[in-house]
Design brief:
The protein is of the alpha/beta class. It contains 17 helices and 21 strands. Strands 1, 2, 3, 4, 5, 18, 19, 20 and 21 form a 9-stranded mixed beta sheet that branches. Helix 11 crosses helix 12. The longest helix is centred in the first third of the chain and has 28 residues, at 27-54.
Length: 605
Amino acid sequence: MEGRIRVVPPSPPTRRPAPTGSRHLPARRLTRLTLILLLGVLLGGTAYWTWAASHRTPAAARTAEGPRPSPAEGQAGSSGTEDAGDPVARRPAAGGPHPATEAHHQPPASLSAGAFPPDEPAPGRAAPAFDLLIRGGVVVDGTGRPAYRADVAVRGDRIVAVGRLPAGRARRVLDATGLVVAPGFINAHSHTYEYLDVAPGGDADLLQGMTTVVGGVDGRAPTPLGPFLDRLERRRLGTNHALFAGHGSIRAAVMGTAARAPTAAELRAMARILERAMQHGALGLSTGLEYVPGRYARTEELVALARVVAPFGGIYSTHLRSEGDAVAAAVDEALAVGREAGVAVNVSHFKVVGRSNWALQGPLIARIRRAREQGIQVVADVYPYPSPDYASALPLATAWDRYPPSDLLIRRTRVRGVEGLSLAQLAQARGMEGRAAARWLLRQDPATRVTALVVSEDNLRQLLRQPFTIIASDGGARPLTTATGDALLHPRVFGAYPRVLARYVREQGVLTLEEAIHKMTGQPAAFFGLRDRGLVRAGMYADLVVFDPATVADRATWSDPALPPEGIRWVVVNGQVAVEDGRRVDGVLAGRVLRGGRDALVGRR
């Protein structure tokens, strides 16, 4: 589809043929027939509005009734869409439904094109004003279903209606003609919480369209977690925050950086800290197995601790022991922890690093798909760049003889006109061999830095297409003032999500727009158990992004990484407009702490 939006038009209303003749009825029979018809209309109307009210049960009441479906279950019937125009045969969502949610992904026949929406007010009844109406946009709702034209109404912090809605009922109207209206993006792997003291507004995240960030990743999180979350709730935040408990932080609190297995008493102490974190709302346990002290943990320790989060519906999120030569064994270990502990698994920033290892990715994908078929819930978050932070700003003096010249981009140098070129391109321009070009550049500027492209673009495209992958940035929002002077900043901090929409949807057609949005919204919301978020649907929290699909793009580059994206028109967080015309709205800090817990992930099971 090359990134085109497919809008399904509403079907024209069917009309019954006019009667060909008339029949004269006696007056008494006509009166009786009129009374019967009137009574039927009244009873039918009462039944309809009773049904509609039951489908708009407040969130608190629904909680009391028992577990609710997860956001990605795609109950199209509750959206109140009048113009949704569900096709007769719809292609599956990009991420593919989990087994527990597959049935919900088929839209009910009652919401065919032109159906009267349950959220439309009864004729003649005065409806309360909307606080915000996003009018005339193309809704990509986060489920993976085809886009459709609709208005989206917000009252307070919730979406209250989706359909054809009158502008006169809204306090503020945003004209979204020609724009896409989508759920706010969810960053599945974020370090923003680590910068809250200097950047509480999360500007770099919001300007990309993010409204929720998942932190406490790579085994690092505040310990104990509960008091930190309590303090966070008392602060004003730009985006919503959900956190994991960090294995490395917990291990360091109990046994420092000891390079050994824990004693039984130490393991019990770690389990107690982790259990308290889960009771206070952690999403699960994260590990950083390439870092100290996580690298000293054996698989048995990880399984024992993952079993602590299992009764809470927790997730095992892991930075693998290796993304290079030992990546196959590292993936096997992650799947073994999920299998033995009975927990869902999130493989963090999944990639295969190093040209000599790139061929391993296909078999690893097959391994993950088999694990999912066997009942292990596995996702892998992916960021859309061929270089991780640790390879993105290397001194040329140490890198020139470790990588092929075509894999090294000149990132920062005093030599004019060469930034952005590969070493191979520089060599060609100067008529010399690649290593000779490196030595020449070092003579001109010994401080030259390069970006090593250690991830294959073909592999990256292959990963993005997988049903188990979701989108992340692996970045942390920084203030623009300080980020501008950071020569080592990764462009993902300002560009990850628009880059997916521009490069891999519009330009290369790797994903359809609906698939990409699903991987950014409904799919991670369902996996992480972020209740009532991740979809454009009545009753959901009003986390929304409005963007121009023709112009949305990242502007951040390796040489100039602190450039905000373009094409993001509005971002709404919990009903408040936080980004307007691509600029941060001063003073709007509407984010919240999102806590997991014992029933937070029921929709994913």
